[in-house]
């Protein structure tokens, strides 16, 4: 899976984009967890990772989160690092 990249922003949100993994390991991806952490200008983490799309994955009515863009809202600060974790 490619690194997440910047897609758009506003005063209160950042939209990131990513590509699905080239190799799903024989089982299709059904969910992505999106994490962010504030960073310095050079990308050094300043705090711990926070999941920005927390879902109750045990909820049987939950629709799959299988998109490849995601708006991160309520951002504070100037610099962030993002990571995406695919689940299958």
The strand count comes to 6
Would you give the CATH topology? Immunoglobulin-like
3D shape: globular
Q: What radius of gyration results from the CA coordinates?
A: 14 Å
Structural class: mainly beta
Assembly annotation = single chain
Unreliable spans: none
Q: What's the order of the H and E elements?
A: EEEEEE
At the first level of CATH, the class is Mainly Beta
| Helical run tally | 0
The CATH architecture name reads Sandwich
List the helices and strands and how they pair.
Layout: E1 5-9, E2 13-17, E3 31-38, E4 50-51, E5 69-73, E6 80-87
Quick overview of this protein structure:
By secondary structure, the chain is mainly β.
Throw out a few tags for this protein.
88 residues; mainly beta; Immunoglobulin-like; three-stranded antiparallel β-sheet; 38% strand
